């Protein structure tokens, strides 16, 4: 049962509640949702001792301002969005207390795209199809259950804050440098042999640029045109990170709010952590692709998840 709330004064361009995602319903045409940057979302919850899957707030680009109705423990992770607590600077990647009446404000991000605000115990909302993940396009989940993004004067409910939360400090090695060169690991896909040799060389040896056509559904990459010898394909299931190549040869990386099936040939699939890194890349960012084996990708992901067991 909800014990307190945060009142939204300024929602920013796109702020939504996200838990780990909506699974087991793709056969119904319902997509996954969940945090675009799994890495920052997971560490925001970890700072408060929340279990895996706890609902946090995803803040795209910044611009959020909220006021506490009751005392609560919060944590902020992701890029620097010039956060302040009652006007005093607040660094990301840390937990803090927001007392009743205090105001948390976020400016616009200096680097990266999305920050995550977690509350001790997770935000409270009614699950839809087993998840609170907000998918605006599908009209599902979120703080009102209908896929609505946050608006001014909305309230975010949270649970009992009386349980002590031992202080946690995030290891420096886990904090990404959003200004560093971006290399995205990709597991080669079933159709990779159908691409020409020159296309494969260019795919992994030439830089790509993040296009302005980017959202939670997918991100287009601009660069050399890739050519596939397949004339037609039967539509098949689309997983997170799938790199589809339409007829214009410019790859589209599909993210959390993607469609459930697609018929374009796939170069491969970005690993979950590569998807997280790509989700923090603003338009114009230069990225490179690096092939990785499925075994290596699985090992790296298991190592990441082990930190939240």
Brief write-up:
Residues 27-304 form the Carboxyltransferase domain. The protein is α+β, with helices and mostly antiparallel strands. It has four helices and 21 strands.
Report on the structure:
The protein is an alpha+beta fold and 309 residues long. The chain has two domains: 4-174, no CATH class; 182-306, Cyclophilin (Beta Barrel). The chain has helices at residues 38-46, 197-205, 272-278, 294-306, and strands at residues 4-11, 14-18, 56-60, 64-68, 72-77, 84-85, 88-89, 94-98, 103-105, 114-119, 123-124, 155-158, 182-188, 208-214, 218-222, 236-237, 242-244, 252-254, 261-262, 266-270, 286-291. The strands form four sheets. Strands 7-6-9-4-1-12-11 form a seven-stranded antiparallel sheet, with no helix packed on it. A hairpin with a 3-residue loop joins β14 and β15. The protein starts with a strand and ends with a helix.
Keywords:
Cyclophilin, 7-stranded antiparallel β-sheet, 7-stranded mixed beta barrel, 4 helices, globular
Helix and strand topology:
Layout: E1 4-11, E2 14-18, H1 38-46, E3 56-60, E4 64-68, E5 72-77, E6 84-85, E7 88-89, E8 94-98, E9 103-105, E10 114-119, E11 123-124, E12 155-158, E13 182-188, H2 197-205, E14 208-214, E15 218-222, E16 236-237, E17 242-244, E18 252-254, E19 261-262, E20 266-270, H3 272-278, E21 286-291, H4 294-306
Parallel strand pairs: 13-21
Antiparallel strand pairs: 1-4, 1-12, 2-3, 3-10, 4-9, 5-8, 5-10, 6-7, 6-9, 11-12, 13-20, 14-15, 14-21, 15-18, 16-19, 17-18, 17-20
């Amino acid at each position: 049962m909800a014990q307190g709330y945060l009142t939204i004064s300024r929602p920013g361009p796109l702020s939504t509640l996200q838990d780990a995602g909506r699974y087991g319903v793709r056969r119904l045409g319902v997509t996954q949702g969940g945090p675009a940057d799994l890495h920052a979302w997971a560490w925001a919850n970890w700072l408060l001792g929340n279990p895996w899957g706890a609902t946090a707030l995803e803040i795209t680009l910044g611009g959020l301002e909220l006021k506490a109705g009751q005392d609560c423990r919060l944590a902020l992770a992701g890029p620097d969005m010039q956060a302040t607590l009652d006007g005093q600077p607040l660094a990301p990647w840390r937990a803090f207390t927001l007392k009743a009446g205090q105001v948390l404000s976020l400016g616009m991000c200096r680097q990266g795209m999305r920050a995550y605000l977690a509350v001790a115990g997770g935000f409270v909302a009614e699950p839809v199809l087993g998840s609170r993940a907000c998918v605006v396009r599908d009209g599902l989940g979120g703080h009102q259950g209908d896929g609505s993004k946050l608006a001014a004067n909305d309230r975010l409910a949270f649970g009992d804050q009386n349980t002590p939360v031992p202080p946690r400090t995030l290891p420096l090695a886990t904090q990404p440098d959003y200004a560093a060169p971006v290399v995205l690991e990709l597991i080669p896909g079933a159709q990779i042999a159908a691409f020409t040799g020159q296309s494969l060389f260019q795919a992994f040896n030439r830089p790509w640029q993040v296009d302005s056509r980017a959202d939670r559904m997918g991100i287009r990459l601009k660069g050399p045109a890739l050519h596939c010898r397949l004339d037609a394909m039967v539509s098949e299931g689309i997983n997170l990170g799938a790199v589809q190549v339409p007829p214009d040869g410019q790859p589209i990386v599909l993210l959390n709010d993607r469609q459930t099936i697609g018929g374009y040939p796939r170069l491969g699939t970005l690993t979950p952590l590569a998807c997280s890194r790509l989700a923090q890349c603003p338009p114009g960012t230069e990225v490179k692709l690096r092939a990785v084996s499925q075994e290596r990708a699985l090992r790296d992901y298991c190592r990441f998840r082990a930190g939240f067991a």
